[in-house]
Amino acid sequence: MKSDLELYDYWPYADRPKIVWPNGAKIAFWVAPNIEFYEANPPINPKRSPWARPHPDVVPLATRDHGNRVGHWRMMEVMDKYKVRGSISLSVGLIEHHPEIIKECVDRNWEFFSHGIYNTRYSYEMDEAQERAIIEDSINTVQKATGQRIVGYLAPALTHTERTMDLLAEYGFLYTCDLFQDDQPQPIKVKSGRLISMPYSLEINDIIVYNSYLATPRRYGQMIKDQFDQLRTEGEKSGTVMCIPLHAYAVGQAHRMAPFEEALEYITSQPDVWVTTAREIAEYYYENYYDVMQADILKRKAG
Amino acid sequence: MTLPKEYLEYPLRRYGYDHDLYDWAMMPQRKPVTWPNGAKIAVWVATELEFFALDQPAKPFKAPGGMVTPYPDLRHFTTRDYGNRVGIQRIWDALDRHKIKSSVVMNSKVAERYPYLVKKINERGDEIIAGGVDMSSLHYGGMDDAVEATQVKTATDTLRKLSGQKVRGWLSPAKSESFNTLKHLVANGLDYVCDWSSDDMPFEMRAPGGGTIIAMPHSPELSDRKIIIDNKHNEDEYVEQIQDQFNWLSKEADRYGGRILSVPLVPYISGLHFRVKYLNQMLDWLASQKGVWFATGSEILDAWKKQQ
Description:
The complex is a heterodimer of chains A (about 300) and B (about 300). Chain A is of the alpha/beta class and about 300 residues long. In chain A, about 45% of the residues lie in helices and about 10% in strands. Chain A has one domain (about 20-300): Glycoside hydrolase/deacetylase (TIM Barrel, Alpha-Beta Barrel), CATH 3.20.20. Chain A has helices at about 60-80, 95, 100-105, 130-145, 165-170, 205-210, 215-235, 250, 255-270, 280-290, 290-300; strands at about 25-35, 85-90, 110-115, 150-155, 175, 185, 195, 240-245, 275. In chain A, the strands form 2 sheets. In chain A, strands 1, 2, 3, 8 and 9 form a 5-stranded parallel sheet that branches. Chain A is globular and about 55 Å long. With about 300 residues, chain B is of the alpha/beta class. In chain B, about 40% of the residues lie in helices and about 15% in strands. At the A-B interface, helix 1, helix 3, helix 4 and helix 9 of A face helix 7 of B.
């Protein structure tokens, strides 16, 4: 084990070159529905057990299924209402299990990126060939089903290896959602090619807010609005990125929908916001800012 | 560092699920249902009467609400017992104000230990749902099939004999099942099971080896245990979440047909002196809404089944 994978350089928040998003926007806003499949009886990874109870662990398994059967529609309809396209963190195996969901997202021109094959299969202990296999499976399966070449990644259940970022860059991915060090994208240090970290935020992720912070639905709605206000203000100095990572099995419970809808209504009615997808943010960043930021990082590092 | 090659093989990567317990279907694909008198929401109050033994085993896990301290944990034993003595009466008083019949999820051990509760349930016209033998008798993956068969039979036979009720519903202790549980439920003539909260509407499940049983929505996310004990939200916030659930389901009912609101109650939680006031507020509010049908699990099941 290493004390630091040295994936990026320390880069103070103050006095960075200014980012201005399209149409002068100060904040780029994207929503990431995690559309996940959890296996009822998965093989066990030596580093992490997928379920707390013996299989089938009915309560959490059924709750996650509720997200796909019921919650997804609720979330999607509300996003439609406020014209927010999703950037989907996809358990790629779900393409075979639940193609109806995939079709609805394709019809809406939502973006897909990979969240592994299943959220019950972890990257820990994978050798390089195995990790390549899940990346290639992701690229090929999504391409075949949707016509999209995926360019983003969020490791399955956030399980990584030391080589994950290098492999993503080698396979031509534009961004990773796995790193939470900043509210702006940042060039990542990879062996070959280029990769940026895309702000995704675990702190406003519905699962973390509901299951770790144990927030009420109304508090979650308020947190989303407060985060937006803060990042838009800071975006006057240099454009920021805000993502709301969602899971239909959490936010799509009926008692949680109204505060989420209110938060989306608030954000999409504000000035200076670019409502977009992760891919569009990444492409704009590469075109306009990657080199500038890389130079600034190196300049500051040199002192 | 390498994983066995099976870790990257997916033999069950196919349409639908990686199990055969039920079929995949999304919410908008369901046939709309209507409830009696044009009600939009069927509300069912499911009250749990559980027996937590002082020598509760921890294998393979402890049911929520179980013993915590070293033996003898009189603290939790008596706190749970309080629910079966005092708490349940407060809940019944609250329900009586609106003439609401409850569905009572009952361990058979509770019926044996406290015949008063069975008598009272029958007088009120409440429905008994089999809740297993007791909170020590878990159902779980990998358990001995013969043991599980005995547990299901003991629980249903005992409750039927002591109550005279047909006993059509089942909710496993800790909502835990093995892959064979449904087989035993079907073998014992049970019509519905409340463990699978995969949907907001009932759906058919397949028992291994043949036979079917209906899954009845019973939301763990909306239970007093989850919101008040696990999430540590206060009572106002509990009431608010039930109201928000009702309001959202009502909007959906206008577009997609009748919906179901489950209100799971634990007497040692909602039946506490300082808390029952909020239960009353919640029930008052629900009773004042238009288009509410207070029903038992079996009543909802029968109304739903007729329209399939």
